[in-house]
Amino acid sequence: MAILELVPDVYSVGSIDWNRTLFDAFIGLSKGTSYNSHFIHGSEKTALINAVDPEKEEELITHLIKLKVSHIDYLIALHTEQDHAGSIPMLLELFPAATIICTQSAKELLFHHLGVDPERCKVIADGEQLSLGNKTLEFMATPWVHWPDTMLAYCIEDKTLFSCDLFGSHYATSDLFLTDFAEGEVLAKRYFAEIMMPFRASILEYLDRLAAKEIEIIAPSHGPCIKPASHIVSLYRTWASDETENLVVIPYVSMHGSVKRMVYYLSDILIEHGISVQMYDLTTADTGDIAASLVDARTLVLGVPTMLFGPHPLAASLAFVANMIRPKTKYLGVIGSYGWGGRTAEILGELTATMQAERLDPVLIQGAPDEQAYDALDALAHVIITKHREN
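The chain above was modelled as a monomer; its predicted structure follows.
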């Protein structure tokens, strides 16, 4: 990643990870990612906002050497996950006079995760300002976006928000600023779905606070910078709201064809009545795509065969993920087939216990669908259609 100037005396010195395909040993990356770090050369003090993943620390140091950085006054840790802070121990060795600026929670986590001496940290309060001379950073505590330690930094003079994970995307690009807004929106939505969606209420609160600031540029910790900032802020307000679309998402597994026939039958009825449907075969689908669909979906219907005593593992895994990311989905249904018995519906109920969605009566049949099964699917479709019209 080349050194690029974001605004006068603020330089992008992070790293692009072009070839990374998996994040957190779970999230698939179709476009790689970046670890964004920004060096600010104030008239009196210098600051480095975020470090990089330890695997890319050599690149960060190379950039600082090319900029002829001889000292850093402040290492600003917006968040303590390793992809943001993992190279801080190395930076502390190279710049022994540097002070870490962070929240109280971050101070504790830096010690536990990276062995950072708490004496090297200065805890900053919500709303507190830090002067670098001709540049002033104002900090905003944003716990649970998406860890308890997170904060944002706003450069008052440059009207630039260093937003940590908020407004980010896993998007490796040589462009400093987002240029392809269509692709950028898709990747930002996936990122929101997988990381931010469980914290929608907190995000809406922080968006209200940010509305009082004049923000021209957003510099997230992953992905390209965004200008104008209003576009992504507006998208986040929609994604974080309680609004849903006239959409039914149907992830399914079919071992012998019975569940697939049920899924296609149900989807045809819904489509005929003006409801959008997005189906995913869980043997090939990308979990990130499903999560992004759930940002908008009014209804989630799981198509599940029973394997031995419970739901097929792929369906059980998807149910667990949906429960973890807590979409604003209003209705949750289950359709499926079993051989001789089992606890599929009961287990799926336990796996989705924290979802706030209304539970629709499941349609579980033995063997292949028959006329009675199709009647039950007709009834389920009628319930979904009615509820969507009410919304």
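The longest strand covers residues 297-307.
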